[in-house]
Specification:
7-stranded antiparallel sheet, alpha+beta, disordered N terminus, 17 strands, Uridine Diphospho-n-acetylenolpyruvylglucosamine Reductase, domain 3, globular, 6-stranded antiparallel sheet
Length: 298
């Protein structure tokens, strides 16, 4: 049986956002500088708390202001998790707004796949819902996917329904001076594969017997159990050459490095389309003014 809580938190959020004046949502502020600042904008807070948990349906409804730590703790009681991560103190809404997929994306999927439904407040102060509580075909704009990574420039998210998944029974990191291609050939759906130019680290997850078999296979290649790697906080895109201190997230093109790289190279057509999209959702530019999803590192 699921746990459901009904209250007026979304209405209170809608009222706080209002229909005029520059406004932004402040969560844990762990990545507050990503994409520029919202200087001069009035700060509001998204609803907090788990509002409905349906373990049998593999979904959870949660306030966007809830920390990932709090959500993970509640879901773990039911043997569940969501495919999201972020710095300590990160909120659900903040993680979705920044749009960076989890380090375990090879197994849990992209962050855009986690979001099923978002209850939002638009620039006109009107509440609306994007997506739905179940996976289904989408016609027209898949607005949930547009919201992920938009830095709150299209709408302010107050409450979401997320897809959950079972917590893996077994999880182990291995590392060794082996080419990542050999590791990929020897494993089935590793959760993460990292390469620092000489050493490959791999995260294996799944049922105990399956993981044990892959551990034995990789041991023959020279990989041994290791601690989870500590990654630098900066981000960049793979260009064929690792910067000093950089670690490549194999398969995603993301490089973890000491400092953020410059903004990504985006075609003029994409930038024009993004600008038209933003203007249609927020003609007056009141939502997170000064932020630009295309001015930040990967």
């Amino acid at each position: 049986m699921g746990m459901t809580v009904g209250d007026g938190r979304m209405e209170a959020f809608r009222s706080e956002v209002g229909d005029s004046g520059a406004v932004c949502v402040r969560g844990g502020a762990t990545r507050w500088g990503v994409g520029g600042g919202s200087a001069g904008a009035r700060e509001v807070s998204a609803p907090v708390g788990i509002m409905a948990l349906e373990p049998a349906e593999m979904t959870v409804m949660v306030g966007a202001g809830t920390t990932l730590t709090e959500l993970a703790g509640e879901l773990a009681v039911h043997g569940l998790e969501v495919g999201m991560d972020g710095p300590q103190g990160s909120t659900v809404g903040g993680a979705l707004a920044v749009g960076r997929s989890a380090l375990r994306r090879r197994r849990v999927g992209q962050i855009a796949d986690v979001l099923l439904q978002a209850d939002c407040v638009g620039a006109d102060g009107v509440a609306f819902t994007a997506g739905g509580p179940t996976v289904k075909n989408v016609t027209g704009y898949d607005l949930c996917r547009l919201l992920v990574g938009s830095l709150g420039t299209l709408a302010l998210v107050g409450r979401v329904i997320l897809r959950t998944r079972p917590v893996p029974v077994c999880s182990v990191w291995l590392a060794g001076e082996v080419e990542p291609d050999l590791v990929l050939e020897a494993t089935y759906r590793p959760a993460s594969v990292l390469w620092d130019g000489a050493r490959t680290s791999v995260l294996l997850e799944g049922h105990g017997a399956d993981v044990d078999q892959m551990v034995e296979t990789l041991a023959r290649l020279g990989l041994v159990p290791a601690e989870a790697p500590v990654l630098a906080p900066g981000r960049g895109r793979w260009s064929g050459l690792l910067p000093d201190g950089g670690v490549l997230e194999v398969g995603s093109g993301v490089v973890h490095q000491p400092d953020d790289s410059g903004p990504p190279i985006v075609s003029e057509g994409v930038l024009n389309l993004a600008a038209r999209m933003r203007a249609s959702f927020d003609p007056s530019g009141r939502l997170n003014p000064g932020r630009d999803p295309y001015s930040r590192a990967a």
